[in-house]
């Protein structure tokens, strides 16, 4: 078998996460996600998304000395499936952390108007290649700057979950990096 037990455990954990993500992707593709919705605070979703089951993500934030700037009002509400939208948020946050350079910043900004709620995740990472932009939310697409562990399903899952909750996920390059925007109608 070979390998240190901690390495084997890490590989097992990664494979289990991949299987879970593939099952979720299949449900997105077949429109069989749970339609159970409730009013939920965006701030509460964010706190759940950053809880300790994501130790590798939090470790990467610490190792890269990233700053996470949370600018979301506690009373900003969505009517969505909280477990699924949390998963979408986690996938976009993972992407932001992976592509933000050492010492960089990730901003999470919540904005509401009478019609919709927007949640922007802005990182100071490298811009997305223009040729990659139209394919960003496609299943198994790996962009020019994909990491070795990237299989290209996280953003597809995030976009699918967002659509299933009557929302839209978009991405654009900014002067400082990349901005992903979740948009949900009230």
Automatic annotation (TrEMBL):
Its main location: membrane. The keyword Kinase applies. One of its GO terms (biological process) is cellular response to phosphate starvation. SUPFAM superfamilies: ATPase domain of HSP90 chaperone/DNA topoisomerase II/histidine kinase. It comes from the Bacteria. GO terms for molecular function: phosphoprotein phosphatase activity; phosphorelay sensor kinase activity. GO terms for cellular component: plasma membrane. Its EC number is 2.7.13.3. It is found in: Membrane. InterPro entries: BphY/WalK/GraS-like (IPR050351), HATPase_C_sf (IPR036890), HATPase_dom (IPR003594), His_kinase_dom (IPR005467). Keywords: Kinase, Phosphoprotein, Transferase, Two-component regulatory system. Transmembrane segments: none annotated. It catalyses: ATP + protein L-histidine = ADP + protein N-phospho-L-histidine. Residues 14-186 form the Histidine kinase domain. It is an enzyme of class 2 (transferase). This is histidine kinase. It comes from Lacticaseibacillus paracasei.
